[in-house]
């Protein structure tokens, strides 16, 4: 018997399966999810380190170039989300246009991206929170302050575990209340960043901008390859398509609006930061706080610590939410156990998938040292971006999928091809150990697919 790994899912079945989701989100909510993911602690660190090591004051151009490349992928996501308003993001898109096997690979890549990213950020959040506690004279036992490492006296990072579980309880309580809390947190985070930009503007010294391109355009481009990864995360918006009012209009607004706001904020911080302090002095752990201390604005440096905590909180909210919808979608299709694809009758949300995701992330964040694994987030994301970009071509050829009145990528097929090639080019910038880790992860995924997923999928049942 021959294997048919290219069998394709039906949009109609997806729409039927996802119809029980409560459609409660608008474009503003989607942008809050996206900004909550994209704008994290990186905005307080990357502009300084890229300026010091790669681009000088031209770092603002680096972020602008990064945003242009990301905008291509964002437009491709926006067209897919408009044409296929279903849960599962790139996983579901791949199932419909490429076939089940490529859909599974996309889903498996996103599982890695979402869960590993949240686990890593939970440990960062714990580190910031512990610093605040120590400032108040409260010290957690060493055994509860780090990953499982008996040789160094740590057994569990209890704060990382607790914050993941608290966010999950919030999400399980209902999306409407969760969205309100997330929107408030995103507003506070943006307000803190804008306060820095406004206050910092008055301490700009024009001489700090000279020379503007000390490393020439080569340095700006190298900085752009690093800055590109700062924008990763806007794809989380597409995972919520099944819960959005008027997705043809609101999904593109949410995805592209996220990138636009993120670009303005990153570029604004870069311009002000390199104007406040000479770029050669910014190769420090926390360059924004360092710049504020240099101009005797310690009160704002303390406020940035709160902004960092809020930034990581909103990122975890968005990513845990997106992870649960992804696992739900894979379970819905039978490629993972079908109980993961069930919606709770009361809340109309995937409660089982949500808690499975939370437990896995809490274990990773609480017990495992993730320092060597976080770069895998980038390769998983870029792989998804690349296939979604190239996927616009078969999507347009599908006459059974209508997208009248929805967003479409301009200059088709040129821009989708450029987007896919740009993502492929970014993948070449990753280190060899990242590829080795990715090969192991995808190898495990392929084994799971051929031993379980292929035989239990809804497509297999429909063909029998």
Labels describing this entry:
464 residues, mainly alpha, 17 helices, 0% strand
Briefly, what is this?
The chain is built from 17 helices and no strands. The protein is mostly helical.
Secondary-structure topology with pairs:
Elements: H1 11-17, H2 27-38, H3 46-55, H4 59-83, H5 90-97, H6 100-135, H7 158-173, H8 175-201, H9 216-227, H10 247-276, H11 287-294, H12 298-332, H13 351-367, H14 376-397, H15 414-427, H16 432-456, H17 458-463
Subcellular location: Membrane
Membrane topology: Multi-pass membrane protein
InterPro entries: AA/rel_permease1
Task: Write up what this structure looks like.
The chain crosses the membrane at residues 30-52, 58-78, 90-111, 154-172, 184-204, 216-234, 255-279, 299-322, 352-370, 376-395, 407-428, 434-455. This is Amino acid permease. It is a multi-pass membrane protein. The radius of gyration is 22 Å and the shape is globular. It has helices at 11-17, 27-38, 46-55, 59-83, 90-97, 100-135, 158-173, 175-201, 216-227, 247-276, 287-294, 298-332, 351-367, 376-397, 414-427, 432-456, 458-463. It has 464 residues and is mainly alpha-helical. Helix 6 (100-135) crosses helix 7.
């Amino acid at each position: 018997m021959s294997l048919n790994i290219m069998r394709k899912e039906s949009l109609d079945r997806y729409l039927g399966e996802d119809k029980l989701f409560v459609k409660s989100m608008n474009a503003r909510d989607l942008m809050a999810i996206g900004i909550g993911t994209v704008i994290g602690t990186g905005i307080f660190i990357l502009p300084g380190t890229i300026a010091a090591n790669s681009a000088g004051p031209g770092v603002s151009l680096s972020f602008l170039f990064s945003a242009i490349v990301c905008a291509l992928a964002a437009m491709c996501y926006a067209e897919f989300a408009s044409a296929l308003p279903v849960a599962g993001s790139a996983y579901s898109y791949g199932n419909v246009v490429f076939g089940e096997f490529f859909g599974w690979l996309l889903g498996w890549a996103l599982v890695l991206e979402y869960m590993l990213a949240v686990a890593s950020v939970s440990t960062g959040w714990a580190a910031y929170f512990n610093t605040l506690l120590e400032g108040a004279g409260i010290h957690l036992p060493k055994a509860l302050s780090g990953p499982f490492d008996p040789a160094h006296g740590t057994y569990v990072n209890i704060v990382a575990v607790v914050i993941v579980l608290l966010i999950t309880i919030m999400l399980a309580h209902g999306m409407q209340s969760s969205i309100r809390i997330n929107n408030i947190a995103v507003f506070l985070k943006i307000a803190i960043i804008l306060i820095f930009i406004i206050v910092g503007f008055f301490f700009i010294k024009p001489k700090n901008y000279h020379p503007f391109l000390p490393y020439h355009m080569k340095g700006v481009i190298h900085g752009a390859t690093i800055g590109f990864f700062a924008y990763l995360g806007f794809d989380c918006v597409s995972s919520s398509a099944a819960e959005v009012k008027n997705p043809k209009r609101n999904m593109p607004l949410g995805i592209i609006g996220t990138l636009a706001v993120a670009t303005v904020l990153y570029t604004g911080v870069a311009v002000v930061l390199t104007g406040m302090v000479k770029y050669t002095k910014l190769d420090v752990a926390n360059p924004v706080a360092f710049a504020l201390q240099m101009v005797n604005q310690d009160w704002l440096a303390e406020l940035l610590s709160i902004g960092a905590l809020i930034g990581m909180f909103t990122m975890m909210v968005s990513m845990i939410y997106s992870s649960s919808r992804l696992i739900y979608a894979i379970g819905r299709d039978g490629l993972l156990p079908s109980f993961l694809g069930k919606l709770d009758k009361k809340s109309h949300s995937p409660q089982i998938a949500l808690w499975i995701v939370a437990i896995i992330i809490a274990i990773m964040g609480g017990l495992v040292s993730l320092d060597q694994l976080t770069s895998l987030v980038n390769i998983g994301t870029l792989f998804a971006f690349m296939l979604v970009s190239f996927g616009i071509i078969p999507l347009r050829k599908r006459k059974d999928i209508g997208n009248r009145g929805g967003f479409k990528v301009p200059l088709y097929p040129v821009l989708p091809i450029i987007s896919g090639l740009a993502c492929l080019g970014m993948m070449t910038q990753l280190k060899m150990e990242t590829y080795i880790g990715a090969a192991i992860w995808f190898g495990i995924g392929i084994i799971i697919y051929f031993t379980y997923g292929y035989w239990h999928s809804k497509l297999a049942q429909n063909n029998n």
